[in-house]
Each structure stands twice: as C-alpha cells, then as structure tokens.
Amino acid sequence: MKDDDDIRKEIADARQLGAWTYLDSMMELLQQECEPQAVQWNRERLHHARWMSSKLLAGTFGDKIQADVKADTKMTIAWSSEVIPEIK
User: Which domain holds residue 15?
Assistant: First the structure.
C-alpha cells in the first residue's frame, strides 16, 4: 500500500464499501424483533456500529467537522525611518 497509490485507493474504497455493508446489516438488526434478554447485547452491537461508522466513514458520519482553511500566512514587518513629531 505504501508504495502503490492505486492499490492504496482500491483498498480504501473496499474498506468503505465494507463499512457500508456492515451498517446495512445493523439496519437489518434494528428491524428484527428480539427477546428482552437480548436487548442489551443488541444495543452494544449497534453502539459499536455507530462508533465504527464514525471512524471508517468519517467524511459521512464523523464526529468532528473538519474545516479546510487556506489562508495567506505571510507576515511583513517593516520599520519606518520617519521620525514622529513629539506632541506637547
């Protein structure tokens, strides 16, 4: 992956597709009835799916808003040789 940009992009695309597939299976779990004893276990599975989504699909489900700020960072400092008259 580190030597080939095309392979890196293909792997990243496959991982995103896998993350969406994982989320689809979690949506199916939400549609199913479950025994009262399984509610907590399903809640944990869904919580994990939400966490994985925020990491694997950060652009879509990320926790943070990423701002892309492009600004001119040049700073100019200049001293003037003019003498400011004294105020009396």
Answer: 5-61
